[in-house]
Design a protein that fits this description.
With 413 residues, this protein is an all-alpha fold. Helices cover 68% and strands 1% of the residues. The protein contains 16 helices and two strands. Helix 14 runs antiparallel to helix 15. The N terminus and C terminus are likely disordered.
């Protein structure tokens, strides 16, 4: 008996479509809304409680380092926002169990599997003593638990040769663990500005939920919505004011959740192209791969060494610094928050073709290549001070600052 045989499956066969699991008595819609609302309100309340009580635990939870290359906040902020997200999803699982919904066991299992990734990140948020290697190792453990309990493994990618290799269980498991850890780490990497990673993951989960709906998978659609609800409950306090940060615990767990729902969706429904899941998550994934290449081969620095020239950092430094000119705390927060929408739009450029062509591997491959070209072109234009003018929106103070800077010979950002 496979390890995941005790888990409930969606009603109706895979690919039953909207007339399948979602249509019988409206139970699917009830389940989806329950997950969305319960996770949202619990995450909202827990995040608020963390903010209001921050004076009692700031010595542990507060991010007081304002000088690092990726630090853009103006005052110490609690960085344990992942707590609200995890507890929001846990409450959603208990609500589903209390209502007798069949997808409760899937939720509990996802939360159990994700506990090592979340726990290692949360401990780092509180102690600042958990190394990146240990956090990645904990995420690999989470992926291994998902393979064992959910049979969530990558067994095909629609590429000749690779599919043959993935037919071997050991290779499939290794590929799956690398993918889960890589995606979780990539979400952590883009967690640099208010609302950036949380909204991107919410949009990515929305794309997964839409396709799960198309193929009639009530379980995965519901838990994608639960992830959105929990993320948005945190997002309200994080954007634009930056009252609480996601932290490593929240970032690693959201990355794990997205990766596992993607793997389960493609594994359960052969009509969903594996490249659909890759295109949905291509922004954080390519950001990570490009950063490794840039650090290793261009700057000759260790790939794991933090720096301040990710694409989102460049947008902040090269666009927002000119657009919003003052240096006070309020203006720094505005700069921070105005950065994220640029990257949300970049994320959406991959999500739109993904949801339109989710079952067409050739079209998705073309869209993947196009996204990579757009990303690299945009990055190099910004890094070389050739930012497209249509990207720059200047406030009055920013315009005045630019005029003053232009009158100072030799002064360049």
């Amino acid at each position: 008996m496979p390890a995941n045989s005790w888990l409930p499956r969606c009603s109706g066969p895979a690919g039953a479509g909207r007339s399948g699991a979602f249509a019988h008595g409206g139970g699917g819609y009830t389940s989806a809304m329950l997950h969305l609302l319960v996770s949202f309100f619990l995450s909202l309340l827990v995040s608020l409680a963390v903010i209001r009580s921050s004076h009692t635990h700031a010595h542990l939870s507060g991010d007081a380092d304002l000088s690092g290359p990726q630090k853009f906040h103006a005052r110490p902020v609690p960085r344990i926002g992942g707590l609200g997200i995890y507890l929001g999803l846990l409450a959603s699982a208990f609500a589903a169990w209390e209502q007798g919904l069949s997808d409760a066991s899937l939720g509990f299992t996802l939360l159990l599997c994700g506990l090592p990734a979340f726990g290692a990140g949360l401990i780092e948020d509180l102690t600042k003593k958990v190394s990146p290697i240990l956090r990645l190792g904990a995420t690999v453990l989470s992926g291994a638990l998902a393979i064992w309990l959910l049979n969530a493994r990558i067994d095909h990618v629609d590429i000749v040769g690779l599919d043959y290799l993935l037919s071997f269980g050991a290779i499939s498991a290794v590929m799956t663990l690398v993918a889960v850890a890589g995606v979780a780490n990539s979400v952590n990497i883009i967690d640099g500005f208010n609302g950036l990673s949380t909204m991107c993951v919410s949009l990515m989960l929305l794309a997964l939920g839409y396709v799960a709906y198309q193929v009639g998978d009530i379980e995965l659609a519901s838990w994608a919505l639960a992830g959105i609800g929990a993320s948005l409950g945190f997002f309200i306090w994080n954007f634009p004011a930056g009252l609480i940060f996601l932290g490593d615990g929240g970032a690693y767990f959201l990355g794990f959740l997205f990766a596992e729902i993607s793997i389960l969706l493609v594994g359960r429904h052969p009509q969903v192209s594996p490249l659909f899941a890759l295109l949905v998550g291509i922004y954080p994934v390519f950001e990570t791969l490009f950063s490794i290449y840039r650090r290793r081969f261009i700057r000759a620095t260790p790939p794991g060494l933090p720096d301040g020239i990710h694409l989102h950092s460049l947008i902040y430094r090269r666009l927002m610094r000119w657009a919003i000119g003052a240096q006070d705390a309020r203006t720094l927060t505005r700069r921070n928050s105005f950065t994220a929408p640029y990257l949300w739009m970049l994320c959406i450029t991959s999500l739109v073709p993904a949801v339109l062509f989710w079952n067409s591997t050739p079209i998705l491959l073309g869209c993947l290549l196009l996204f990579c070209v757009i990303y690299v072109g945009l990055y190099w234009r910004i890094v070389r001070f050739r930012t497209p003018k249509w990207l720059v929106f200047r406030t009055a103070s920013g315009q005045a600052r630019r005029v003053r800077a232009a009158t100072r010979p030799g002064k360049r950002e």
